[in-house]
Amino acid sequence: MINKNNFNIKNLKKINVCGIPFGFEGYVINKIFEINQKNIIYLAKDDKDAEIIKNSLSFFNSKTEVMNFPAWDCLPYDRSGPRLKIQSERLTFLSKLCQPSYSKKIIIATVNAITQRVIPKTHVEKLIFRLNIGKPIDIKKFKDFLIYSGYIETGKVLELGDFSIRGGIIDIFPSSYTNPIRLDFFGDYLEKARYFSIEDQKSIKEIFDPITIFAVREVCLDKLNVAHFKKNYLKNFGIPENFDHLYNSIISGQVFSGYEHWISFFYDSMDTIFDYLVDP
């Protein structure tokens, strides 16, 4: 058993624990967390190991908030970028860290995830929109937020990151939600909100709690970000050719496959995950 008599860790910044049997790591991490009461970051060797540790921690203490920070699922400067699901999970994670919270967390990440720089905290703080049932909403401001946060307007919501507007009804499939959401407005007031099915577009369950919308893309093609990209691209590569599809697509505000690899060109500076954490 691990207790305060075994580990006097309250004032220690570094703890060396050896010989832990496979599958027992969750118990050890949980005990250290209970004694120390500080944010803990566990570095898993890969995504599979991270999932095992997450399940183990949930088994030993279901009340502890365990957050997973995934790495991009692609090679650097590959033709394709990270999947939208991965980007939305990362942004949901970063957005939650930006919100005031007095509860301590256990964070699971891989080496690849934690060494990769992320978008600035000051930018992520702007990528959160809250909706309350029965409260007025500035619909134009909400639509601008969705576009700014990487959502794409479509005729019908079929996948993550889609949204559609039909009169007083807005359908959206936001990150951190398993099902898309249908928002029913009466004028500017949010009258009802319901989960609905992608297959038949029928309502599943009514929502009464506040709804928090996070961004789905790590690179938002707003005017400021595009201007940063243009400046940095010209500085490093000079005037591009007419057939430079990456440059021409981004300048025109169009999403280009793999453009996420140029993420550092869109911002003045990049942060690390530790810039988001208090008392890690």
Structural notes for this entry:
The chain is α/β, with parallel strands linked by helices. The protein has 8 helices and 11 strands. It has helices at about 25-35, 45-60, 85-100, 110-115, 120-125, 140-150, 225-235, 245-250; strands at about 40-45, 65-70, 105-110, 130, 150-155, 160-165, 170, 180-185, 190-195, 205, 210-215. The protein has a 6-stranded mixed β-sheet with strand order 5-6-7-8-9-10, with no helix packed on it. Strands 1-3-2 form a 3-stranded parallel β-sheet. A hairpin with a 2-residue loop joins strand 8 (about 180-185) and strand 9 (about 190-195). Helix 1 (about 25-35) crosses helix 2. The longest helix has 15 residues, at about 85-100. The protein is globular, with a radius of gyration of 21 Å.
The tally of beta strands, per DSSP, is 11
State the low-pLDDT regions, or none. none
Strand/helix succession: HEHEHEHHEHEEEEEEEHH
Contiguous helical run count: 8
Tell me the strand order in the biggest sheet.
5-6-7-8-9-10
